[in-house]
């Protein structure tokens, strides 16, 4: 049972790491989006006015506004593209390792619960035999021994290896 608790704790730790990885990626993306928005606003507020004043004297007011606006749109698009780019190789490898570790932990836990379920089934089968022996009045001692052997087999995988052949002979 201690092994099951340890495996369950390991699975919880891996799930927490996966959530932390996802949170870091989301935070990184949000950071780039925020930077892009701030750059766009600051550029719009400060540089646009200065560039407009400078270019309006040379190109006229309409051409100056189009030129400054186009440059600011290009900066904003660059920031958005940075936010939406695919994760790097290191991030992909980290995510893949975590995914495999999670799957291994889940598989180990499934195996542990299957073994536990098998042990419970063995005990219930032994109790069923014990009840049959009590009700019919035949072979009470054999039913009691089977119950005890099933209980021991359920408690220890090592004992289970030795007890199962005996139980097969008795059945």
Features:
171 residues; mainly alpha; rod-shaped; 94% helix; single chain
Biggest β-sheet strands, sense, barrel: none
Number of helices: 5
Q: In which range does the helix fraction lie?
A: over 70%
What is Rg?
35 Å
Order of helices and strands: HHHHH
- The 3D shape can be described as rod-shaped
Distance between the termini: 28 Å
- Name the beta content range: under 5%
Oligomer: single chain
Q: Number of DSSP strands?
A: 0
**What average pLDDT do the residues reach?**
78
What this model shows, in words?
- With 171 residues, this protein is mostly helical.
- Helices cover 94% and strands 0% of the residues.
- The chain has helices at 2-59, 61-84, 89-136, 140-155, 157-170.
- Helix 4 (140-155) packs antiparallel against helix 5.
- The protein is rod-shaped and about 110 Å long.
- The model has no long low-confidence stretch (mean pLDDT 78).
């Amino acid at each position: 049972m201690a092994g099951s608790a340890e495996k369950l704790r390991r699975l919880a730790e891996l799930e927490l790491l996966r959530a932390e990885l996802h949170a870091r990626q989301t935070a990184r993306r949000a950071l780039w989006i925020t930077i892009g928005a701030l750059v766009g606003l600051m550029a719009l507020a400060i540089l646009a006015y200065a560039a407009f004043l400078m270019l309006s004297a040379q190109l006229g007011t309409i051409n100056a506004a189009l030129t400054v606006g186009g440059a600011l749109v290009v900066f904003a698009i660059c920031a958005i593209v940075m936010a939406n780019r695919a994760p790097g190789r290191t991030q992909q490898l980290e995510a893949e390792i975590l995914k495999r570790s999670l799957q291994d932990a889940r598989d180990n836990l499934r195996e542990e619960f299957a073994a536990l379920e098998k042990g419970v089934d063995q005990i219930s089968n032994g109790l069923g035999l014990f009840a049959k022996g009590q009700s019919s009045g035949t072979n009470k001692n054999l039913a009691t021994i089977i119950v005890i052997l099933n209980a021991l087999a359920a408690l220890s995988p090592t004992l289970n290896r030795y007890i199962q052949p005996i139980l097969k002979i008795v059945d």
